[in-house]
Amino acid sequence: PLTGKVSLVTGSTSGIGLGIARALAEAGSAVALNGFGIAAEIARTKDQLAADFGVEVSYSAADMTSPEAIAEMIAATVANHGRLDILVNNAGIQYVAPLDQFPVEKWNAILAINLSSAFHTTRLALPAMRQNKFGRIINIASAHGLVGSPFKVAYVAAKHGIVGLTKVTALETAEDGITCNAICPGYVYTPLVEAQIDSQARAHGISREKVIHDVLLAQQPNKHFASVEELGSLTVFLASEAAASITGTALPVDGGWTAH
Ligand code: NAD
Fold first, then answer.
1. Residue 226 DSSP one-character state
2. Do 103 and 210 belong to one domain?
3. Which UniProt keywords apply (predicted)?
4. Are 143 and 214 contained in the same domain?
5. What is the Cα–Cα distance from 68 to 113, expressed in whole angstroms?
6. Is residue 252 one of the residues assigned to a domain?
């Protein structure tokens, strides 16, 4: 369904972003990857996507804290692939600490990567999308874009912010063949979640097992982590013609968490 389209997925060297990049490539889209990691592993991921799905794959190492690097990434994507149709703002980091002990540099980094980077990619991608009268902007927010949890002040603020960015983007592009939606996952098992099991254990003073069952999945009524494949499928659907009238939404994929 996405043959001939070009997708850029930020933070796609790992976890959800990589799962989404795979799903978009499987649907026939060329893919521009971005994110940090070991050069040899990234090269292998790139070659594998190209070989598995027969699509063009490029990679940008742009740091999402740098507006200049983001501008270079968008320009390079359009130059390499000739167009930009689908933008997935997925790069994100987490840090867990009580508000009055929250490191200021972590606040600044989380706001830059989880929120401001999506403002920059969006403002810079819109001209290319408007040119083709087609665009799909998919922001990977979180259930924490809709509700709060203790010890995650920067993350919850940034994710609420990206839901707001999604609404304004949708309104300003509504007549241009462009849609913008946010996906709000509950807990998805990825390296980001693995890392916070230990920090939550320290913050709450409890074991890893107790964190998984009583803290992480306590919120998630179905008691399952969502999978990166589920998020990939939803992204492909939102990018398709079938979703042309869905815009400005924040779609929970959270096993019922935000139904509470
Ligand atoms: P992850 O740690 O597995 O992947 C994060 C990706 O972002 C990696 O590719 C990393 O290299 C990249 N990245 C980090 N900092 C960057 C920077 N400064 N510049 C460029 N790239 C950078 O995490 P994940 O769990 O796959 O999370 C992806 C997104 O999904 C995040 O926005 C996260 O907030 C969101 N999310 C995750 C979950 C979950 O349970 N895992 C739930 C809800 C929302």
1. B
2. no
3. Oxidoreductase
4. no
5. 14
6. no
* Whole-structure pTM value: 0.96
117 belongs to a structural domain: yes
215-223, long-range: CB within 8 Å, 24+ apart, which pairs? 216/187, 217/187, 219/143, 219/149, 219/186, 219/187, 219/254, 219/257, 219/260, 220/186, 220/187, 220/254, 220/255, 220/256, 220/257, 221/255, 221/256, 221/257, 221/259, 221/260, 222/255, 222/256, 223/255
Q: Are 19 and 229 in contact (CB under 8 A)?
A: yes
For residues 19 and 231, the answer to whether their CB atoms sit within 8 Å is: yes
Find the catalytic residue in 59, 95, 155, 187.
155
Do residues 56 and 82 share a domain? yes
Q: Print the domain residue range for 192.
A: 187-225
| 168 CA distance to ligand 1 middle (Å) | 23
Residues 48 and 160 in one domain: yes
Residue 13 near ligand 1, beta carbon < 6 Å = yes
Q: Determine the Cα–Cα distance for residues 253 and 251; give it in Å rounded to an integer.
A: 7
Q: Provide the 10 A C-beta neighbour count for residue 166.
A: 27
Q: Are residues 67 and 31 located together in one domain of the fold?
A: yes
- Per residue in 59-103, pLDDT tens? 999 999 999 999 999 999 999 999 999 999 999 999 999 999 999
The beta strand positions in 100-199, using DSSP E, are 135-140, 178-185
**Residue 85, pLDDT score:** 98
Ligand 1 within 6 A of CB of 139: no
Q: Is the pLDDT of residue 192 over 90?
A: no
Q: Is the dihedral of CA 29, 34, 36, 37 positive or negative?
A: positive
CATH of the domain at 80: 3.40.50.720
